[in-house]
Amino acid sequence: MFARVALAAIIASAPVAHARVVSADPIDSTPHVLDGIVNAITVVGRTVVVGGSFSEVSDASRRTVFARANLFAYDLVTGRVLADFAPSVAGPVYGLAAGERGTVYVGGEFHGVDNQRARGLARLRVSDGALDSGFQPGIGGGMVTTLARQGSKLYVGGDFVSPRAALARLDAGTGAPDPGFTVEPDAPVGSRVKVYALAVSGGRLVVDGSFTTLDGRSRPQLGLIDVSGLTAKVDPWRTDTYARKCSTSFPSYVRGLDFSPDGRYFVVVTTGGAKGGICDTAARFETYAKGSAIRPTWVNSTGGDSLYAVAVTGAAVYVGGHQRWLDNPEGRDSAGPGAVSRPGIGAIHPTTGKALSWNPTRERGIGVKAFYPHSSGLLVGSDTTRLGREYHARIGMFPRS
What we know:
Helix content: under 10%
CATH superfamily: YVTN repeat-like/Quinoprotein amine dehydrogenase
Radius of gyration: 20 Å
CATH class: Mainly Beta
CATH architecture: 7 Propeller
Distance between the termini: 13 Å
Structural class: mainly beta
Protein backbone atom coordinates (compact mmCIF):
# COMPACT_ATOMS: atom_id res chain seq x y z
CA MET A 1 0.00 0.00 0.00
CA PHE A 2 1.23 3.50 -0.83
CA ALA A 3 1.35 6.05 1.95
CA ARG A 4 -0.94 9.05 1.45
CA VAL A 5 1.75 11.41 2.73
CA ALA A 6 3.38 11.31 -0.72
CA LEU A 7 0.61 13.62 -1.97
CA ALA A 8 1.03 16.28 0.69
CA ALA A 9 2.79 18.80 -1.55
CA ILE A 10 1.01 21.68 -3.25
CA ILE A 11 -0.25 20.41 -6.60
CA ALA A 12 -0.45 22.21 -9.93
CA SER A 13 -3.71 21.91 -11.86
CA ALA A 14 -2.38 21.22 -15.35
CA PRO A 15 -0.99 17.92 -16.69
CA VAL A 16 2.81 17.85 -16.59
CA ALA A 17 5.64 15.70 -17.91
CA HIS A 18 6.84 12.77 -15.84
CA ALA A 19 10.52 11.84 -15.65
CA ARG A 20 9.72 8.23 -14.70
CA VAL A 21 6.95 5.69 -15.05
CA VAL A 22 4.42 5.92 -12.24
CA SER A 23 4.19 3.35 -9.45
CA ALA A 24 2.12 0.23 -10.10
CA ASP A 25 0.62 0.49 -6.58
CA PRO A 26 -2.46 2.77 -6.49
CA ILE A 27 -2.89 5.19 -3.60
CA ASP A 28 -5.40 4.23 -0.92
CA SER A 29 -7.22 7.53 -0.46
CA THR A 30 -9.28 7.78 -3.66
CA PRO A 31 -13.08 7.51 -3.34
CA HIS A 32 -15.16 4.92 -5.17
CA VAL A 33 -17.80 5.28 -7.88
CA LEU A 34 -20.36 2.62 -7.03
CA ASP A 35 -22.14 2.16 -10.35
CA GLY A 36 -21.93 3.01 -14.04
CA ILE A 37 -18.78 4.30 -15.70
CA VAL A 38 -16.28 7.16 -15.44
CA ASN A 39 -15.72 8.89 -18.80
CA ALA A 40 -13.72 12.00 -17.92
CA ILE A 41 -11.39 13.45 -15.28
CA THR A 42 -9.86 16.88 -14.78
CA VAL A 43 -8.15 18.70 -11.92
CA VAL A 44 -8.88 22.28 -10.80
CA GLY A 45 -6.30 23.36 -8.24
CA ARG A 46 -6.30 20.41 -5.86
CA THR A 47 -9.86 19.38 -6.68
CA VAL A 48 -10.43 16.32 -8.87
CA VAL A 49 -13.63 16.54 -10.93
CA VAL A 50 -14.99 13.24 -12.24
CA GLY A 51 -17.70 12.82 -14.87
CA GLY A 52 -19.51 9.88 -16.40
CA SER A 53 -22.74 7.96 -16.02
CA PHE A 54 -23.29 7.06 -12.37
CA SER A 55 -25.52 7.79 -9.37
CA GLU A 56 -23.53 7.01 -6.20
CA VAL A 57 -20.01 7.45 -4.84
CA SER A 58 -18.41 6.63 -1.52
CA ASP A 59 -15.39 7.72 0.45
CA ALA A 60 -12.26 5.57 0.45
CA SER A 61 -13.39 3.66 3.54
CA ARG A 62 -16.75 2.81 1.90
CA ARG A 63 -18.53 3.92 5.07
CA THR A 64 -20.30 6.98 3.64
CA VAL A 65 -22.30 6.96 0.40
CA PHE A 66 -23.15 10.14 -1.52
CA ALA A 67 -25.80 10.53 -4.21
CA ARG A 68 -24.17 12.10 -7.26
CA ALA A 69 -25.80 12.53 -10.68
CA ASN A 70 -23.04 11.91 -13.26
CA LEU A 71 -20.57 14.37 -11.71
CA PHE A 72 -18.67 14.67 -8.43
CA ALA A 73 -15.50 16.14 -6.98
CA TYR A 74 -12.98 15.22 -4.32
CA ASP A 75 -9.83 16.57 -2.73
CA LEU A 76 -6.77 15.10 -4.42
CA VAL A 77 -4.63 15.17 -1.28
CA THR A 78 -7.09 13.75 1.25
CA GLY A 79 -9.53 11.88 -1.00
CA ARG A 80 -12.45 13.60 0.75
CA VAL A 81 -15.61 13.79 -1.37
CA LEU A 82 -16.62 17.46 -1.57
CA ALA A 83 -20.06 17.84 -0.04
CA ASP A 84 -20.72 21.28 -1.53
CA PHE A 85 -20.11 20.13 -5.12
CA ALA A 86 -23.20 18.09 -5.92
CA PRO A 87 -24.79 19.36 -9.14
CA SER A 88 -27.45 17.20 -10.76
CA VAL A 89 -26.45 16.74 -14.40
CA ALA A 90 -29.36 15.39 -16.44
CA GLY A 91 -27.43 12.98 -18.64
CA PRO A 92 -24.00 11.40 -19.14
CA VAL A 93 -20.81 13.47 -18.96
CA TYR A 94 -18.14 12.73 -21.57
CA GLY A 95 -15.71 15.65 -21.42
CA LEU A 96 -14.22 17.93 -18.75
CA ALA A 97 -11.78 20.84 -18.82
CA ALA A 98 -10.47 23.08 -16.06
CA GLY A 99 -11.54 26.70 -16.28
CA GLU A 100 -10.21 29.87 -14.71
CA ARG A 101 -11.07 31.19 -11.23
CA GLY A 102 -12.19 27.84 -9.82
CA THR A 103 -14.51 26.73 -12.62
CA VAL A 104 -14.89 23.58 -14.69
CA TYR A 105 -16.36 23.00 -18.15
CA VAL A 106 -18.65 19.99 -18.41
CA GLY A 107 -19.60 18.42 -21.74
CA GLY A 108 -21.88 15.51 -22.50
CA GLU A 109 -25.33 14.37 -23.50
CA PHE A 110 -27.52 16.32 -21.08
CA HIS A 111 -30.23 18.94 -21.26
CA GLY A 112 -29.82 20.65 -17.90
CA VAL A 113 -27.97 21.12 -14.63
CA ASP A 114 -29.94 21.45 -11.38
CA ASN A 115 -33.15 21.86 -13.38
CA GLN A 116 -31.69 24.79 -15.29
CA ARG A 117 -31.37 24.66 -19.06
CA ALA A 118 -27.86 23.72 -20.22
CA ARG A 119 -27.64 21.64 -23.38
CA GLY A 120 -24.50 19.58 -23.85
CA LEU A 121 -22.01 22.05 -22.35
CA ALA A 122 -21.92 24.07 -19.14
CA ARG A 123 -19.49 25.88 -16.86
CA LEU A 124 -19.81 25.27 -13.13
CA ARG A 125 -18.20 26.75 -10.02
CA VAL A 126 -16.11 24.12 -8.26
CA SER A 127 -16.78 25.70 -4.85
CA ASP A 128 -20.51 24.87 -4.88
CA GLY A 129 -21.38 23.30 -8.25
CA ALA A 130 -23.48 26.27 -9.32
CA LEU A 131 -24.17 26.79 -13.01
CA ASP A 132 -22.54 29.89 -14.51
CA SER A 133 -25.35 31.51 -16.48
CA GLY A 134 -22.91 33.95 -18.11
CA PHE A 135 -21.46 31.12 -20.20
CA GLN A 136 -23.84 30.54 -23.14
CA PRO A 137 -22.28 28.16 -25.69
CA GLY A 138 -25.38 27.53 -27.80
CA ILE A 139 -24.74 23.80 -28.31
CA GLY A 140 -27.60 22.14 -30.15
CA GLY A 141 -28.55 19.05 -32.12
CA GLY A 142 -26.21 16.59 -30.45
CA MET A 143 -23.72 15.83 -27.70
CA VAL A 144 -20.30 17.06 -26.61
CA THR A 145 -17.73 14.26 -26.40
CA THR A 146 -14.43 16.07 -25.81
CA LEU A 147 -13.08 19.40 -24.51
CA ALA A 148 -9.75 21.21 -24.33
CA ARG A 149 -9.07 24.72 -23.09
CA GLN A 150 -6.10 26.82 -24.17
CA GLY A 151 -6.07 30.22 -22.52
CA SER A 152 -9.16 32.17 -23.53
CA LYS A 153 -10.25 29.54 -26.08
CA LEU A 154 -12.30 26.42 -25.49
CA TYR A 155 -12.20 23.68 -28.13
CA VAL A 156 -15.30 21.50 -28.29
CA GLY A 157 -15.93 18.28 -30.22
CA GLY A 158 -18.94 16.01 -30.59
CA ASP A 159 -21.81 15.40 -32.99
CA PHE A 160 -23.71 18.65 -32.37
CA VAL A 161 -24.89 20.83 -35.26
CA SER A 162 -24.67 24.28 -33.66
CA PRO A 163 -22.98 26.69 -33.21
CA ARG A 164 -20.92 24.74 -35.78
CA ALA A 165 -21.02 21.13 -36.94
CA ALA A 166 -19.11 18.68 -34.67
CA LEU A 167 -16.15 20.99 -33.97
CA ALA A 168 -16.03 24.51 -32.56
CA ARG A 169 -13.78 27.00 -30.84
CA LEU A 170 -15.56 29.12 -28.26
CA ASP A 171 -14.73 32.11 -26.15
CA ALA A 172 -13.94 30.47 -22.82
CA GLY A 173 -15.56 33.35 -20.96
CA THR A 174 -18.85 33.83 -22.78
CA GLY A 175 -19.25 30.66 -24.86
CA ALA A 176 -19.57 32.70 -28.06
CA PRO A 177 -18.30 30.95 -31.22
CA ASP A 178 -14.94 32.23 -32.46
CA PRO A 179 -15.32 33.71 -35.98
CA GLY A 180 -11.65 32.86 -36.64
CA PHE A 181 -12.37 29.13 -36.42
CA THR A 182 -14.48 27.76 -39.26
CA VAL A 183 -12.75 24.43 -39.99
CA GLU A 184 -15.46 21.85 -40.62
CA PRO A 185 -15.18 18.04 -40.50
CA ASP A 186 -17.34 16.39 -43.15
CA ALA A 187 -17.83 13.36 -45.43
CA PRO A 188 -18.71 11.03 -42.56
CA VAL A 189 -17.67 7.44 -42.07
CA GLY A 190 -21.07 6.04 -41.17
CA SER A 191 -24.24 8.05 -40.79
CA ARG A 192 -23.02 11.19 -39.03
CA VAL A 193 -19.92 13.28 -38.46
CA LYS A 194 -18.64 12.95 -34.92
CA VAL A 195 -15.43 14.15 -33.30
CA TYR A 196 -14.32 11.53 -30.78
CA ALA A 197 -11.23 13.22 -29.35
CA LEU A 198 -9.19 16.40 -29.64
CA ALA A 199 -6.10 17.87 -28.01
CA VAL A 200 -4.27 21.16 -28.36
CA SER A 201 -0.57 21.92 -27.91
CA GLY A 202 1.08 25.18 -28.87
CA GLY A 203 -0.19 26.12 -32.32
CA ARG A 204 -1.63 22.75 -33.28
CA LEU A 205 -5.01 21.13 -32.67
CA VAL A 206 -5.34 17.40 -33.43
CA VAL A 207 -8.79 15.87 -33.94
CA ASP A 208 -10.07 12.41 -34.75
CA GLY A 209 -13.50 11.06 -35.52
CA SER A 210 -15.97 9.78 -38.10
CA PHE A 211 -15.01 12.23 -40.82
CA THR A 212 -12.90 11.91 -43.95
CA THR A 213 -12.42 15.59 -44.80
CA LEU A 214 -11.54 18.83 -43.02
CA ASP A 215 -12.69 21.86 -45.01
CA GLY A 216 -13.01 19.59 -48.03
CA ARG A 217 -9.43 18.30 -47.82
CA SER A 218 -8.88 14.59 -47.45
CA ARG A 219 -8.19 13.76 -43.80
CA PRO A 220 -9.48 10.23 -43.15
CA GLN A 221 -10.49 10.06 -39.47
CA LEU A 222 -7.51 12.16 -38.29
CA GLY A 223 -6.25 15.67 -38.96
CA LEU A 224 -4.17 18.56 -37.67
CA ILE A 225 -5.35 22.17 -37.60
CA ASP A 226 -2.99 25.12 -37.39
CA VAL A 227 -4.36 27.38 -34.63
CA SER A 228 -1.26 29.56 -34.28
CA GLY A 229 -2.85 32.57 -35.97
CA LEU A 230 -6.07 34.50 -35.63
CA THR A 231 -7.68 32.31 -38.30
CA ALA A 232 -7.46 28.53 -37.97
CA LYS A 233 -6.56 26.52 -41.07
CA VAL A 234 -6.11 22.89 -41.97
CA ASP A 235 -2.46 21.93 -41.57
CA PRO A 236 -0.69 20.38 -44.62
CA TRP A 237 -0.32 17.14 -42.69
CA ARG A 238 -2.15 14.06 -43.91
CA THR A 239 -2.09 10.35 -43.22
CA ASP A 240 -4.09 7.63 -44.91
CA THR A 241 -3.40 5.24 -42.03
CA TYR A 242 -7.04 5.32 -40.94
CA ALA A 243 -8.46 5.17 -44.47
CA ARG A 244 -8.26 1.39 -44.14
CA LYS A 245 -11.34 -0.54 -43.04
CA CYS A 246 -11.66 -2.49 -39.83
CA SER A 247 -14.69 -4.58 -38.83
CA THR A 248 -18.01 -3.54 -40.38
CA SER A 249 -19.22 -3.01 -36.79
CA PHE A 250 -16.74 -0.14 -36.50
CA PRO A 251 -16.97 2.06 -39.62
CA SER A 252 -15.13 4.72 -37.61
CA TYR A 253 -12.65 3.24 -35.15
CA VAL A 254 -10.37 6.03 -33.92
CA ARG A 255 -10.86 6.83 -30.24
CA GLY A 256 -8.56 8.59 -27.73
CA LEU A 257 -5.52 10.73 -28.51
CA ASP A 258 -2.97 12.80 -26.62
CA PHE A 259 0.00 15.07 -27.34
CA SER A 260 3.39 14.55 -25.78
CA PRO A 261 4.21 17.19 -23.14
CA ASP A 262 6.44 19.06 -25.60
CA GLY A 263 3.92 18.77 -28.44
CA ARG A 264 6.38 17.14 -30.85
CA TYR A 265 4.27 14.02 -31.31
CA PHE A 266 0.90 12.56 -30.46
CA VAL A 267 -0.54 9.08 -30.02
CA VAL A 268 -3.89 7.77 -31.29
CA VAL A 269 -5.65 4.63 -30.00
CA THR A 270 -8.29 2.63 -31.83
CA THR A 271 -10.90 -0.08 -31.65
CA GLY A 272 -11.91 -1.97 -34.79
CA GLY A 273 -11.87 -5.74 -34.34
CA ALA A 274 -9.31 -8.50 -34.76
CA LYS A 275 -8.33 -7.77 -38.36
CA GLY A 276 -4.74 -6.69 -37.75
CA GLY A 277 -3.25 -3.67 -39.47
CA ILE A 278 -4.22 -0.49 -37.65
CA CYS A 279 -7.29 -1.93 -35.88
CA ASP A 280 -7.05 -2.17 -32.06
CA THR A 281 -3.74 -0.33 -31.83
CA ALA A 282 -1.81 2.60 -30.42
CA ALA A 283 0.16 4.62 -32.97
CA ARG A 284 2.62 7.50 -32.66
CA PHE A 285 2.70 10.36 -35.20
CA GLU A 286 5.11 13.28 -35.49
CA THR A 287 3.32 16.63 -35.24
CA TYR A 288 5.59 18.55 -37.58
CA ALA A 289 6.10 15.90 -40.24
CA LYS A 290 5.34 17.02 -43.78
CA GLY A 291 3.52 15.26 -46.56
CA SER A 292 0.27 13.73 -47.78
CA ALA A 293 1.04 10.12 -46.80
CA ILE A 294 2.60 10.38 -43.35
CA ARG A 295 3.20 7.04 -41.67
CA PRO A 296 3.12 6.34 -37.95
CA THR A 297 6.51 6.24 -36.22
CA TRP A 298 5.43 3.03 -34.52
CA VAL A 299 2.32 0.93 -34.00
CA ASN A 300 1.62 -1.32 -31.03
CA SER A 301 -1.18 -3.84 -31.50
CA THR A 302 -3.38 -5.56 -28.92
CA GLY A 303 -4.28 -8.35 -31.34
CA GLY A 304 -8.01 -7.81 -31.24
CA ASP A 305 -9.03 -5.79 -28.17
CA SER A 306 -10.17 -2.17 -28.10
CA LEU A 307 -8.15 0.73 -26.72
CA TYR A 308 -10.15 3.81 -25.71
CA ALA A 309 -7.84 6.10 -23.73
CA VAL A 310 -4.23 7.27 -23.93
CA ALA A 311 -2.00 9.57 -21.88
CA VAL A 312 1.48 10.65 -22.93
CA THR A 313 3.77 11.79 -20.11
CA GLY A 314 7.24 11.77 -21.68
CA ALA A 315 8.34 8.75 -19.68
CA ALA A 316 5.58 6.54 -21.04
CA VAL A 317 2.54 6.26 -23.27
CA TYR A 318 -0.22 4.84 -21.06
CA VAL A 319 -3.02 3.02 -22.87
CA GLY A 320 -6.28 1.68 -21.54
CA GLY A 321 -9.22 -0.30 -22.82
CA HIS A 322 -10.23 -3.91 -22.38
CA GLN A 323 -7.09 -5.31 -23.94
CA ARG A 324 -5.46 -8.57 -22.90
CA TRP A 325 -2.10 -8.02 -24.58
CA LEU A 326 0.31 -5.51 -26.09
CA ASP A 327 3.15 -6.19 -28.58
CA ASN A 328 0.72 -8.49 -30.39
CA PRO A 329 0.63 -7.68 -34.13
CA GLU A 330 0.11 -11.31 -35.16
CA GLY A 331 -2.64 -12.03 -32.63
CA ARG A 332 -6.23 -12.49 -33.77
CA ASP A 333 -8.08 -12.58 -30.46
CA SER A 334 -5.13 -14.65 -29.34
CA ALA A 335 -1.59 -14.19 -28.04
CA GLY A 336 0.67 -14.19 -31.07
CA PRO A 337 4.49 -14.42 -31.04
CA GLY A 338 6.01 -11.87 -28.66
CA ALA A 339 2.71 -10.83 -27.05
CA VAL A 340 2.89 -9.61 -23.44
CA SER A 341 0.02 -9.76 -20.97
CA ARG A 342 -1.28 -6.29 -20.06
CA PRO A 343 -4.90 -6.73 -18.91
CA GLY A 344 -6.86 -3.52 -19.16
CA ILE A 345 -3.99 -1.07 -18.79
CA GLY A 346 -0.39 -0.81 -19.93
CA ALA A 347 2.52 1.44 -20.77
CA ILE A 348 4.47 1.76 -24.02
CA HIS A 349 7.99 3.16 -24.49
CA PRO A 350 7.52 6.46 -26.35
CA THR A 351 10.56 5.91 -28.61
CA THR A 352 10.60 2.19 -29.35
CA GLY A 353 6.84 1.61 -29.30
CA LYS A 354 7.30 -1.57 -27.26
CA ALA A 355 5.49 -2.40 -24.03
CA LEU A 356 7.25 -1.35 -20.82
CA SER A 357 7.44 -3.71 -17.86
CA TRP A 358 4.82 -1.68 -15.93
CA ASN A 359 1.90 -4.07 -15.46
CA PRO A 360 -0.42 -3.19 -12.54
CA THR A 361 -3.39 -4.98 -14.20
CA ARG A 362 -7.06 -4.08 -13.90
CA GLU A 363 -10.39 -5.83 -14.22
CA ARG A 364 -11.08 -5.39 -17.93
CA GLY A 365 -14.83 -4.72 -18.30
CA ILE A 366 -15.69 -2.21 -21.01
CA GLY A 367 -12.37 -0.50 -20.43
CA VAL A 368 -10.48 2.58 -19.33
CA LYS A 369 -12.24 5.65 -20.70
CA ALA A 370 -10.23 8.39 -18.95
CA PHE A 371 -6.66 9.23 -17.99
CA TYR A 372 -5.39 12.42 -16.40
CA PRO A 373 -1.61 12.74 -15.99
CA HIS A 374 -0.82 15.06 -13.10
CA SER A 375 2.25 16.27 -11.26
CA SER A 376 1.48 13.80 -8.49
CA GLY A 377 0.62 10.78 -10.61
CA LEU A 378 -1.77 9.25 -13.13
CA LEU A 379 -5.53 9.30 -12.55
CA VAL A 380 -7.55 6.50 -14.18
CA GLY A 381 -11.30 6.21 -14.79
CA SER A 382 -13.17 3.11 -15.98
CA ASP A 383 -16.18 0.87 -15.33
CA THR A 384 -14.68 -1.81 -13.07
CA THR A 385 -13.65 -2.19 -9.44
CA ARG A 386 -10.17 -3.80 -9.47
CA LEU A 387 -7.12 -1.68 -10.25
CA GLY A 388 -3.57 -2.68 -9.39
CA ARG A 389 -4.90 -5.85 -7.73
CA GLU A 390 -6.87 -3.78 -5.19
CA TYR A 391 -10.43 -2.53 -4.83
CA HIS A 392 -10.66 0.88 -6.50
CA ALA A 393 -14.13 1.27 -7.94
CA ARG A 394 -14.04 3.12 -11.28
CA ILE A 395 -11.53 5.76 -10.16
CA GLY A 396 -7.96 5.38 -8.97
CA MET A 397 -4.55 6.96 -9.05
CA PHE A 398 -1.03 5.64 -9.56
CA PRO A 399 1.44 7.96 -7.74
CA ARG A 400 4.75 9.24 -9.05
CA SER A 401 7.41 6.67 -8.24
